[in-house]
Design goal:
Shape: globular
Order of helices and strands: HHHEEEHEHEEHEEE
Low-confidence stretches: 1-33
Bound molecules: zinc ion
Helix content: 10-25%
Distance between the termini: 67 Å
Largest sheet: 4 strands, mixed
Number of strands: 9
């Protein structure tokens, strides 16, 4: 059908172009409409120049794997409420404070890996920045040191802050994100971290800050994770956990 239409076009063009009629007639086997006509792009054989490779950042990627005991030398020990066999290492892309893609590691319970991957794919696609993401074992499982380094991490077999109960982190069902920009703030408004003092109020502006109603909070809510920034009294702006707490 296209070829027929083009042939008809050539005839019309020839009529209107007088001197070119002979040339057009002699090449009717290969219709060539005037170059100004958009149809020529589909009818005229043209050497195709390959499109240049996209130069943007790589797409989000993630991998879930079993975690060996020796990856958790400090964060797990016998007596923890969840066996390390029920934990998983999630290796995934995150967008850095430097405006570049990075690969981070998180350990979470095997039942929540889909939740984590779903949220972090969104964060990456939004270019939502994260300072760094290492297992808390890089800080010998010292929560204070990990927070002071503004490290995003999940599993840590420890008690809840100010409590003798296990933290949700001990179940691999909680994550702390950009803990310097999103500190744990007491009811009286203080934080234990000197470098976080400028981030104790909400809403506030800043790279990697989480405010009430933010898309980060909504992304976690969609997979059933609640934000510590909504607690009454004490606020834990870095903290998300499955089902809250
Ligand atoms: Zn936490």
């Amino acid at each position: 059908m296209k070829r027929t239409a083009a042939m008809a076009f050539v005839v019309l063009a020839s009529v209107s172009c007088g001197a070119q009629e002979q040339a057009a007639s002699s090449t009717t086997a290969v219709p060539v409409p005037p170059a100004s006509d958009p149809a020529s792009e589909t009818q005229t054989p043209v050497a195709v120049t390959p499109e240049p490779e996209p130069t943007g950042p790589p797409p989000f990627s993630s991998q879930v794997s079993r975690v060996t005991r020796d990856r958790l030398p400090h964060s797990w020990q016998p007596g923890c409420p969840v066996s390390y066999r029920d934990l998983r290492l999630v290796t995934l892309s995150y967008w850095g404070f430097d405006g570049k893609p990075h690969t981070g590691e998180l350990v979470v319970r095997k039942t929540v890996t889909d939740d984590i991957v779903t949220v972090f794919e969104k964060l990456y696609d939004w270019r939502w920045p994260i300072r760094q993401m290492k297992l808390v074992d890089a800080y010998k499982a010292d929560d204070y040191d990990s927070i002071d380094a503004d490290n995003t991490s999940a599993f840590n077999c420890r008690r809840a802050t100010g409590s003798s109960n296990w933290s949700n982190h001990a179940y691999g069902e909680a994550i702390d994100i950009n803990p310097r920009e999103n500190p744990y703030v007491t009811a009286s408004g203080s934080t234990a971290h000197q470098n976080a003092k400028k981030f104790t109020k909400r809403p506030t502006k800043g790279k990697g800050v989480i405010n009430p109603g933010d898309k980060v909070v909504k992304a976690f809510a969609r997979v059933g994770w609640e934000w510590g920034g909504y607690w009454s009294g004490t606020k834990d702006y870095q903290h998300f956990s499955k089902g809250g707490g």
